[in-house]
Design goal:
This is Histidine-specific methyltransferase SAM-dependent domain-containing protein. Keywords: Methyltransferase, Transferase. It holds the Pfam family Methyltransf_33. GO terms for molecular function: methyltransferase activity. The protein is an alpha/beta fold. Helix content is 34%, strand content 26%. The chain is built from 8 helices and 13 strands. A 7-stranded mixed β-sheet has the order 4-3-2-5-6-13-12, with helices on both faces. A 4-stranded mixed β-sheet has the order 1-11-8-7. A two-stranded antiparallel ribbon has the order 9-10. Helix 2 packs parallel to helix 3. Bound molecules: N,N-dimethyl-L-histidine. N,N-dimethyl-L-histidine binds next to strand 11.
C-alpha cells in the first residue's frame, strides 16, 4: 500500500467470506473455467487413469477443488494415497475429513504447506507407490507472474521422480470479450469478491475503508496477456489502516489480482523450460481451457 501502484497479493482474497464468494464465482454463467475443466476431467479421466497406472500417490495443490479431485479419485485404480497440500490448515482438514468419509479405504495424508515456496513431501511408506501425480487444477498457476509460475513448476519437478507426472489446468487466450465478461459477471459476484478484501482489512487491520467509495475494475491487458483486477477509488480520500493514513487520488487503484492466459504452445514451452515433457493436452471444443499432462 506504500508503493506508487498500491497492490494487495491475491492470496488475501481467501478468508471464509472470500472463499464462499469464490465458490459462487465458479457457478456464474460468465465464469467458464470451472465447468469447462470439470467437463474435461469427466471426459478424459479414463485416459488420465491409463497414463498414471496403479498405486498412484495423488498430490493436490490446494484442497478447495473437492468436486474435481473426486473425479480423479473415482477413476484412478488402486490409489496408494491422496495428499492435499494447502496453506490453510482449517480448510484442508475439513475438506480431507469429508473426503475420508466418502472414501473410507483411501489413505489421506494432509500436508499444511505453501506450495509456492520450497518444501519437501513428508515420507510416505504405508502403501507401495508406483507413481506420483501432482494435480493442480483451476488455472491457479495463472495468478502467478510467469517467472513465479516457472519457479513453481521447477519446485514441483523436484518433488517427482522419473516417470512421475503433473496434471495442470491452464486457462487459454481467447476473445477478450469472453475474458472481460468472466471477470465482470452481471450478478456482481466478482465485484463483491474483490471488494471483500477491503472488508477484511477493516476487520483484521482496524481500518476504515468505506466500500461505497471503491469500485471493482477488471479488464484484459492484451500486452501482458492477463486479466487485471483493481479496486478504484471513486474520489480523493484518506483511509486509516491501523492508525496509518493512506491517501487516495480520485481514480487511483489498488491492484488486487493478475490472471495470466496462455496459448497451449506457450504453456508447453514454459513446462519444457522447467524440465517437464508435455506429454498430452486436452481442450474443449471452444478452446476455452486446457488440461496438460506433464511428465519428467
Ligand atoms: C483462482 N483463480 C484461478 C481465479 C482466476 O480466474 O484467476 C480467481 C478469480 N478471480 C476472479 N475471478 C476468479
Amino acid at each position: 500500500m506504500t508503493q506508487p501502484q498500491k497492490a494487495i497479493a491475491p492470496k488475501f482474497f481467501y478468508d471464509k467470506r472470500g472463499s464462499e464468494l469464490f465458490d459462487q464465482i465458479c457457478e456464474v454463467e460468465e465464469y467458464y473455467p470451472t465447468r469447462t475443466e470439470i467437463h474435461l476431467l469427466k471426459t478424459y479421466c479414463r485416459d488420465i487413469a491409463q497414463l498414471v497406472g496403479q498405486d498412484c500417490l495423488l498430490i493436490e495443490y490446494g484442497s478447495g477443488s473437492s468436486a474435481k479431485v473426486r473425479l480423479l479419485l473415482d477413476a484412478l485404480p488402486h490409489l496408494a494415497g491422496y495428499m492435499p497440500i494447502d496453506i490453510s490448515q482449517e480448510h484442508m482438514l475439513q475438506a480431507s475429513a469429508e473426503l475420508a468419509q466418502s472414501y473410507p479405504d483411501l489413505d489421506v495424508i494432509a500436508v499444511c504447506a505453501d506450495y509456492t515456496q520450497d518444501f519437501q513431501l513428508p515420507p510416505y511408506s504405508k502403501k507401495p507407490v508406483n507413481h506420483k501425480l501432482i494435480f493442480f487444477p483451476g488455472s491457479t498457476i495463472g495468478n502467478l507472474h510467469p517467472q513465479e509460475a516457472i519457479h513453481l513448476l521447477k519446485q514441483s519437478r523436484r518433488l517427482l521422480d522419473k516417470g512421475d507426472s503433473m496434471l495442470i489446468g491452464v486457462d487459454l487466450k481467447k476473445d477478450p470479450a469472453i475474458l472481460n465478461a468472466a471477470y465482470n459477471d452481471a450478478q456482481g459476484v466478482t465485484a463483491a469478491f474483490n471488494l471483500n478484501l477491503l472488508d477484511r482489512i477493516n476487520q483484521e487491520l482496524n481500518a476504515n475503508f468505506d466500500l461505497s467509495h471503491f469500485h471493482h475494475w477488471a479488464f484484459y491487458n492484451q500486452d501482458e496477456s492477463r486479466i487485471e483486477m483493481h479496486l478504484v477509488s471513486l474520489k480523493e480520500q484518506t483511509v486509516i489502516i491501523d492508525k496509518t493514513p493512506f491517501h487516495f487520488r480520485q481514480d487511483e487503484t489498488i491492484h488486487t489480482e493478475n490472471s495470466y492466459k496462455y496459448s497451449i504452445e506457450e504453456f508447453q514451452d514454459m513446462a519444457n523450460y522447467a524440465g517437464f515433457d508435455a506429454q498430452q493436452v486436452w481442450t474443449d471444443a471452444d478452446h476455452l481451457f486446457s488440461l496438460h499432462y506433464l511428465t519428467i
